[in-house]
User: What shape does this take?
Amino acid sequence: MITVIYLWRINKRSVPLAVWHMTTDRRTLKRDRGVGFFKLIGTGTGETFTPRDADSTLWGLILTIDESALAEFDRGSVVTRWRAFATSEARYIATAISSHGQWSKAQPFEVDQDLAKTWQGKVMALTRARIRWRKNLQFWSAVPPVIASLRGSPGVESAIGIGEAPIGLQGTLSIWSDGAALREFAYKGDAHSAVIRQTRSRAWYSEELFARFALREVRGSITATR
Assistant: This one.
């Protein structure tokens, strides 16, 4: 199984249609036998992980799928319906080279151990956490220094916030020039290291996941907001 991420930029007038598809597409995806794990997501700047970060014009889909079924899925009803009102689309094809933790009580990403030893190209990082409700304020106060550090890190090419809900189910999706740049930020950055320590001592999360992927193919790009 490979991991595929779609991002769609839409006009503001299409936001109600996007919200509708966030609900109705789940039924179609559950019936698709080629699809393993999937999550429909909203996005944001990721600067504070509060609702004010939300970008109502950028939506996405994360899924795992048998590689042989991807071409058919790409022509299928879910993607076609989003394309009908999207102003731009980006698609990322990736293979997991590391994954720790759970998402919705599952480990969704199949790690390729051989590729993990040899991959020298671009790396995509995905973090996701279910934040305990009583810990939201503590978490939000700790985020800004980490995001500032992330944006300024050598090797980071893009980064957005992602979420299954406006509050409590938060994450990041970032693309790096290589694995060394990501490791430098994750394990040696002062701000990020401080948050890791607080995560352990303050028990912010009831569930968390951190995954790295070999970014094998990128198709398309997302236009800037207007």
The radius of gyration is 17 Å. The first helix runs from residue 15 to 31. The chain is about 35% helix and 40% strand.
